[in-house]
Design brief:
Elements: E1 21-26, E2 32-36, H1 49-62, E3 70-72, H2 75-81, E4 97-99, H3 100-110, H4 113-124, H5 127-141, H6 163-176, E5 188-191, E6 194-197, E7 209-217, E8 221-228, E9 235-242, H7 245-261, E10 263-269, E11 276-279, E12 287-291, E13 296-301, E14 308-313, E15 327-335, E16 338-347, E17 364-367
Antiparallel strand pairs: 1-2, 1-9, 3-4, 5-6, 7-8, 8-9, 10-13, 11-12, 12-16, 14-15, 14-17, 15-16
Helix pairs in contact: 1-4, 1-5, 2-4, 3-4, 4-5
Length: 372
């Protein structure tokens, strides 16, 4: 399965961060609001566990495992990821069995390395086999610049990700597995009579953050993948390469708050309103109406309405049959020639193959945003 993402846009304004790598993305459209070296390779640390969780959720959806299944805690998992390792741990007991649900909760809340290894061994038999599953699913999702070698994120010179890929991975988890998303905002978890708080301290700050994962190694520094619905839309942020836990918290808070507050919502087109028409070659109609999925709303930098222009872009002419509801185009919104948002557009009606071949015309239509 491949998740289709809108082309990333870029609305850089007057904002900066101490993070070496950063990105801020609108979850619904995939629009990138801010980025800083978002396509450079970086060590994921425990943020790699989001890929581990994605594989587990994929196995649950396929019915190959269940939340009630219990997996065995091997000596390898106990030694490599347990209390003896000195890293983040669930404190799982050697030779015990733990349910998939509690292992998932530990990976997300406690960042348990032992829990991640137990999941990997329970699903694939070994960390190496599980890493192959991680990379296969990453390719399906479209994470083109990431490579995983273990389920924990423990340092490995061959493992790398990008901030953009981590944001896209978070978007995949949010979109495809909303039934499990509540685990990311649980404030704490107790296991083996040891209570640990959620390692994402932003969850408890009261600023609307409800996920997703932190990470830290000596070589990589401190990082986190963050999400919030504060401000009327869901945002996803990634910051990494910071020097302390407190700096990670503050830079993450600043980026996610700026994204929620520095933009205003503009209702561009009502539900069902035709934004433009796309040419159809050889169909029963020479064109098809383009509409949003519901209301087309734009999130624009405050005070930028006078700078706006837009275009509808598609690869065309379209070839029939074009089915109502097919995503066939996108609305690209610009401010002073800078791309600030991309919104998907869908066929408003079905156009079947016709008897008369119609002349193909230019596939790029310009329109003026007179409604602003």
């Amino acid at each position: 399965m491949v998740l289709a993402f809108a082309s990333p846009a870029f609305a850089q304004t007057t904002f900066d961060t101490k993070a070496k790598f950063a990105i801020l993305m609108d979850e619904e459209s995939g629009t990138v609001i801010f980025q800083k070296d978002a396509d450079l390779p970086m060590e994921p640390a425990s943020m790699a566990k989001l890929m581990t969780i994605a594989v587990v959720f994929d196995e649950l959806r396929a019915g190959r495992i269940a939340m009630s299944d219990e997996f065995f805690v091997s000596e390898h998992a106990w030694r490599t990821g347990g209390a003896r390792s000195g890293g983040s741990t669930m404190f799982a007991e050697l030779n015990s069995k733990i349910s998939v649900e509690n292992l998932v909760r530990s990976v997300i809340i406690q960042s348990g390395n032992d829990a991640a290894i137990v999941l990997a061994e329970g699903i694939a038999g070994s960390e190496g086999s599980f890493a192959a599953m991680m990379n296969e699913l990453a390719a399906d999702i479209g994470l083109t610049d990431s490579h995983f070698t273990n389920p924990t994120g423990l340092p490995d010179p061959d493992m790398h990700v990008t901030a953009r890929d981590l944001a896209d991975l978070a978007r995949y988890l949010i979109k495809d597995y909303p039934q499990y998303y509540h685990y990311f905002s649980e404030p704490e978890m107790e296991w083996n009579k040891i209570k640990q708080p959620n390692r994402n301290s932003l969850v408890e700050m009261g600023i609307g953050v409800d996920g997703l994962k932190t990470g830290h190694t000596e070589s990589a520094g401190y990082g986190s993948v963050i999400s919030t619905k504060d401000g009327g839309r869901r945002l996803i942020a990634v910051v990494h390469g910071l020097t302390s836990m407190s700096q990670r918290t503050e830079e993450g808070r600043k980026l996610i708050t700026w994204g929620a507050r520095a933009f205003e919502r503009v209702a561009a087109y009502a539900d069902g309103a035709v934004v433009a028409r796309a040419n159809v070659y050889g169909g029963t109609s020479g064109s098809v109406g383009l509409v949003g999925k519901g209301e087309v709303a734009l999130y624009l930098p405050r005070g930028s309405r006078k700078c706006l222009g837009a275009e509808v872009h598609y690869t065309g002419p379209l070839m029939p049959p074009v089915k109502a509801g097919d995503q066939v185009a996108e609305l690209r919104v610009f401010c002073d020639d800078q791309l600030v948002q991309v919104a998907p557009l869908f066929a408003a009606e079905t156009v079947e193959e016709g008897d008369i071949v119609r002349k193909a015309t230019d596939a790029l239509k310009q329109l003026a945003l007179g409604w602003l």
